[in-house]
Amino acid sequence: MKVARGKKEIKQIREKILESALDIIVLKGLDGLTMRNLAKKTNMTAPNLYNYFSNKDEIYIHIVIRGFEMLYADLKAACDLHADKTDRLRAMIDTYMTFGINKPRYYDIMFTRPTPKYNDYIGTPLEKISEIEYKISMEIAALALETAKNVMGPDAGDEILTRRLVQIWSLLHGMITLNNSQVMGYVAETAEQIYEKIIDEFIDSLQISS
Q1: What tens digit of pLDDT does each residue of 180-199 get?
Q2: Confidence (pTM)
Q3: In a domain, 202, yes or no
Q4: How many structural domains does the chain have?
Q5: DSSP 140-200
C-alpha cells in the first residue's frame, strides 16, 4: 500500500521542481521550459509533475512570487534597521543592488527577460496566482515611494515621486545589468566605488530638490 507523502516532503519536492525550472529558464528561456525537460532534470515523470503544478506557467509564476517575496523581505528589513530617513533610503538602494547581483537568476526573470506579467494572465485560470506576485511588487513600489517621499519632503507631488522612482530604478537596473554581464570591468576597475558615488549623488539631488 502506497503511503501518502507528508507536507514536509511535498514542500521539498515542490522546492526541487521550482529550482530545476529556474535553472532551465535561465539556460533556455521560458520557451525552453517544458514538463518533459523538467521531468528529466528532476528525475520525475511528467505525469508526476502534474501532482504538484498544473502546468509550466504556474511553475514560472511561483518562481516569480518567490523572487518578489525575497526582495520585499530584504528591502523591508533594510528599511526597518534605520531611523534616519536618508540612511533608510540608502540602505534600501544598497539592498536592491545586492539582490540583483547576488540573485541574478531571479533578477533576470523578474526584471530583464520579456517574460509574462500579471496583465498577461488576467482572465485565465492563473489570474489569482499571478495576482499574488502583482500585489507583492506593488508593495515594493509603495515602500520605495514612501521612503523617497520622506527624504524629499511632504511637498513632493506624486508625479515627481514617480519620476524619481523610475529614475533610480533605471539607474540601478543599468548598474546591475552591467555588473552581471561583466561589461563594466572593461570600462572601470573600481566599479563598486563608482556605483557608491553615483548613488550618493542621486540621494543628494533628492535632498536638494526638497
Answers
A1: 888 877 777 777 888 888 99
A2: 0.89
A3: yes
A4: 2
A5: HHHHHHHHHHHHH-TT--HHHHHHHHHHHHHHHHHHHHHHHTT-GGGT-TTHHHHHHHHHH
